[in-house]
Structure formats: structure tokens, C-alpha cells
Amino acid sequence: MLANKLLGVIFDLDNTLVSSSLNFEKIRATLGCKNNIDILDFVDALPKSQQANANKLLVEFEVNDALNAKKLLGTDQLLALLSQLDIPCAIVTRNCREAALVKIENNNINIEILLTRADHKAKPAPDALLYLAQFWQLPTENLLYVGDYLYDLQAAQNANTMSCLVTHGETLDYANLASIVVNELTELNDVITQSFTCEVADASV
Questions:
Q1: For residue 2, is it within any domain?
Q2: What is the pLDDT of residues 23-69, one digit of tens each?
Q3: Is residue 59 part of a domain?
Q4: How far is CA 185 from CA 76, 115, 130, 175, in A?
Q5: Do 37 and 53 belong together in one domain?
Q6: Are residues 90 and 139 both part of a single domain?
Q7: What is the pLDDT of residues 138-180, one digit of tens each?
Q8: Are the CB atoms for 94 and 151 separated by under 8 Å?
Q9: Among 5, 71, 118, 189, which residue's Cβ finds the most Cβ atoms within 10 Å?
Q10: Are 162 and 188 in contact (CB under 8 A)?
């Protein structure tokens, strides 16, 4: 069950709404980034003379990955439910905008608001989530951030939103940080349906 009334949902993109096969080891090797350093932090810390080329290489990797991305199980069902419930949705991703738009358009994902690393400081920073709370004029505790990785859960914690971790059947050692843990979005669909059914039932008592 959701801890608070659900008023808005924010999604990660890669391996949450669509598939991704980004080879981070290859990206790190190409950029010369060590394993213990975040790739985006590494690029941001490069001298200005090297940043442009590093960003160009990173965007090439992301766009190539975007061309093969497929919509994940439960995406359409969940988005239809949220539309029916009149719950606003947005996407917050660490992707570049070019790659994110390819993934969204190629897979007919009907979410109008897209925030990328070009718009706000990248996750786990809470900036994009806090912006959406202000934009929607909704309390952060009534928002749900849905993602598949540690950064998603940390961003949710930093913004004081609820969080949902999509595991795709894997055992993840940071799952305890999530408000809700599901294997696929179909399960989140059931959780939200149940929450709103209970609200209706309580209101009729």
C-alpha cells in the first residue's frame, strides 16, 4: 500500500518504462572513467577543452541505445490507469534529451513532461522532483517516483517523495530504501488500483 494519498507520479525512463542496453563498462573505458566515479560527475569535472568531446561520445552511446529501446511490460496499462485517475505524470531521466525523446516517441509513451540532465542537476539530486512538486503545486509526500536503480531511490529520499523500485525479478541490496518494491509495472498498477479502491470504500463508510 502507498503511505500517502497519490497525487502525482514521476518515472525514470531506462529500464523503468523502456528497455536499455547501455554498456557502461564500454562507456567508462571510452571516456577513461574509473569504476568508482559517476560518469556524469566525471564528465562535468573534465577540463572544458575535453568536456565537449566527452559529451559528444556519451550522447552517441545513448542515442544508439535509444534506437533499440522497447516499451516494458505494464507501461501502457499503468499509464492508462493514471490517466483514468487524472493523476499527472512526468519523466525524470539522467539521459540526454535527444536519446530520451527517441525512446518516448518510438514507443508511443504519452507523457508530456520530460526532464533530463540538461534541465536540472542529475539524480540522485532531488532538483527535478522538487521542481515538479512546485509546478504541479502538490506536496512532495504525495508524489511517487518510480525507478529501477539506487539513484532513483536516493532522489526520492532527498525530495521526500514516495518511491517504487522495479526489480525485474532481481534481488537488489538497496531495495530496503524503497517505499514499494515490485517486479514489474503490472504490480504497481495493482497497488495503485487497490489504494484507490480502499479510498472509495473508506469514503462510503
A1: no
A2: 888 999 999 888 888 899 899 899 988 898 898 999 899 999 999 99
A3: yes
A4: 9, 21, 24, 16
A5: yes
A6: yes
A7: 999 999 999 999 999 999 999 999 999 999 999 999 999 999 9
A8: yes
A9: 189
A10: no
Q: Quote the cell numbers at residue 101.
A: 525523446
50: which 3 cell numbers?
A: 575535453
How high is the pLDDT of residue 135?
A: 98
Take residue 77 and report the three cell numbers written for it. Answer: 496499462
Verify that 105 and 153 share a domain, yes or no. yes
Buried b (16+ CB within 10 A) or exposed e, 162-183: bbbbbeeeeebeeeebbbbbbe
Report the candidate in 161, 169, 103, 172 with the shortest Cα–Cα distance to residue 132.
161
**In sequence order, what DSSP letters do the residues of 100-133 get, joined into one string?**
HHHHHHHTT----EEE-TTTSPPTTS-HHHHHHH
Domain count, the chain: 2
Residue 88 exposure: Cα atoms within 13 Å on the Cβ side: 15
Query: What residues make up the domain containing 161?
Result: 8-19+71-204
In a domain, 1, yes or no: no
With respect to residue 55, please indicate whether it lies within any of the assigned structural domains: yes
pTM of the full structure: 0.91
**Set of cell numbers at residue 144:** 511517487
18-38 b/e (C-beta count within 10 Å ≥ 16 → b): bbbebeeeebeeebebeeeee
